[in-house]
Each structure stands twice: as structure tokens, then as C-alpha cells.
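Proteins fold reproducibly. Next comes a concrete instance:

***
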Amino acid sequence: MSARRLLPWLALVLVLAGALVVGSAGDGGPRTDAERTAALSSQLRCPTCRGQSVRDSNAPAAAAIRTEIARRVEEGQSDEEILAYVDGQFSESLLLTPPRSGVGSLVWILPVAALVVALAGLAAAFRRWRPPAPPEVSEEDRRRVAEALGSEGTDR
């Protein structure tokens, strides 16, 4: 592949890599207890509401969970410990993000696999979309065309 054809692909990879770096970079500073409580409560769904996080819900159950999260944050528990405790208190999971292991990992793996397959298919299709080579024209073909054009002019 020539450097000229490789340049747009390289630019695309650089732009995507830059977007991933910028998108995944956090502020890096320490979070306050209120910020941690809000972040944790946004990762759990309300047990009585449909489609709302504990952070967004006004239900009494959500308020109780927010209070429990705030208490555990003040005690100095880690985010993982708090999420595991709250999630363990209910018969069905309250986590809004699927687990990254077991069957739940398919939710994370399948979209990436589909993207890779789609990009490979596009690359294969682009390689096949080349203009056909011009046909070989022999001297005999040129002579016949010249004769045909010459005889057309006399018929008219």
C-alpha cells in the first residue's frame, strides 16, 4: 500500500486515539463526599421506579439508599464496597452497568467485535473497488475500427 493511500487511515487512527484519550481522562483531583455520593447513586437504579437512577428518583426507597451511600462514604468505604453492599441488599441487581465478567461481558464484547468485523468488511470492499484495467487493443482492432469508420462516411 502506498504512503499516499495509507495517510488517511493513519489520520483516522490518530483522531480516534486522541478522542479516546480525551474522553477517558478524568479530572484527576480528589472528589468530595457529596460528589462521590452523587456518582455512586447514579450507578444504581431505583428499586421502585422504572428507568430512573437512585440519584434522579424522588421515591422513599431511593432517598434511603442515598442516605446509606452518604453514610458509608463518610465512613471511608471504597466505591466498590458501597456498590456491592447496596446491590447485595436486594434480590435483583440494582447496578445500571452490566458486569464485566460472565454472561454480562457479552454486552461489552459484542459491540466491539461487531465494529471490528464491520471495519474489516469495509476494508475488503474498498480493496475490491478498483477500476477495471483498460482492455488491450491490438493493431488488428485499430484497423477494423478505422475501416468501419471509413465505410460509414461513404454510405451517407
